[in-house]
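Reopening this ticket.

The earlier resolution said the output was attached, but the attachment link was broken on my side. Pasting everything inline this time so it's all in one place.
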Amino acid sequence: MSLKNQVQLITYVDRLANGGLDKLNTLLSHEFASLFGGVHLLPFFNPIDGEDAGFDPIDHTQVDKRIGTWSDIASIGATHDIMADLIVNHVSAQSLVFQDVLAQGSQSSYFDLIMTKEKVFGLEATQADIDKIYRPRPTPCFTPMTCATGEVMNVWTTFTSNQIDIDVTGEQGQAYLDRILDTFEQNNIKLIRLDAAGYAIKKAGTNCFMLDDTFDFINALSAKANKRGMNCLVEIHSYYKTQIEIAKRCEAVYDFALPPLVLHTLFNNDAQALFDWLSIAPRNCVTVLDTHDGIGIVDVGPEGDKAGLLTHEQIDNLVETIHHNSQDQSRKATGAAASNVDLYQVNCTYLDALGNNKQDYLLARAIQFFAPGIPQVYYAGVLGLNNDMALLAKSQVGRDINRPYLDDATLQDALTTPFFGAMKTLIKLRNTHPAFNGEFTITLDGQMFNMQWQLAEEAICLNVDILQHTASITTFINNNIKQTIDIKDESIK
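Inline output:
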């Protein structure tokens, strides 16, 4: 990928900056100066405050005017690699196109854009057909909707009834996606996150998830993006061997196995599963510990009778330890306890998942920064924020526990903490050391877990004592020690 090999920030515009894109740009160039080579701007489309925090756009080519304009986006893109979401699977039920379909039914000029059960299965869909469909959420796959004409459509709604699946294979679907790509190209977008791409292709008799046709669709869409000077990142939670295969066939993927494996390592003083994964993990990846979503579990679990990176018992222990460490706050935001939930995620800040232990958190970040891939850090994570129980209570949306709105005072307080100072040290080291552009090696010897990068005569090594939960970072030139930095006592020295 033609991106800076530097740490990227993940953020909502309004929730971090307490304002618009211009205020975020000021933050990036002042308080966050030299920290982030890129920024993932979570959905900034109209509206930013829909049912799913912007992932249900009414107009995917329009910036929500409450936070700014496309020229503001382009301005940030002049200094930072911008990642934007291309929500390929669905549009908002409030969009003009779907409202026209509701008004005119099958006579609407947009009818072919909307995906329905009948378009895939005809009029004779069996329960066996429906049961095969892979479901990321416990809600129904189809939502009956009555048009003004009296026609009843069984609309395909993979996620919520306000997120209307589209037919990406038809002429209208292709034209819809092309308009978004053109808009992105014109406004300095460098990396496109293909949100929910695994669900985009539906075929009768299949599970409608990551089919061979889905790969063809992703590759064709990526080729269109490449011609416009952009790269694509596929966002898919799945079995770890599936992720490896996806990485072979796509430009870039997320390493979603890393967050739960780092937690497992620190919870159990055992790095074997993490070592095993990093020995085979895709190198064309973006790494995260925390995002706007929850902490993924399916990415490390078994699939049927196929072993996972962790066993069922280890996963149960992982989830229960998160709940215990967060004083059951995560339990209140996960599963049936909150609406708009995913079946495969635990909702909690990464810091609270670690029991608010900042030493363990800094170790986790160091491991992430040394893992192969471009690292991204969520805005709540870089500032060391805790679960937002007030927002969760207000919205009753589980993932809002880790989607805080910051006022100016809260932001400024967070920027002055020793924790943020330690994070800055780690980030700047990851951004500037040349060895991160070289070769990666990893070793596990008893309680010592070592990750090293080497480029010509330059090397940098992370040595983690898994039992003591301490670490050191050592830099070398021609095998001679240049500098050693210790991570201990919740600080970096």
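Reporter confirms the inline version is readable. The first strand starts at residue 8 and ends at 11. Residues 190 and 331 are 37 Å apart (CA to CA).
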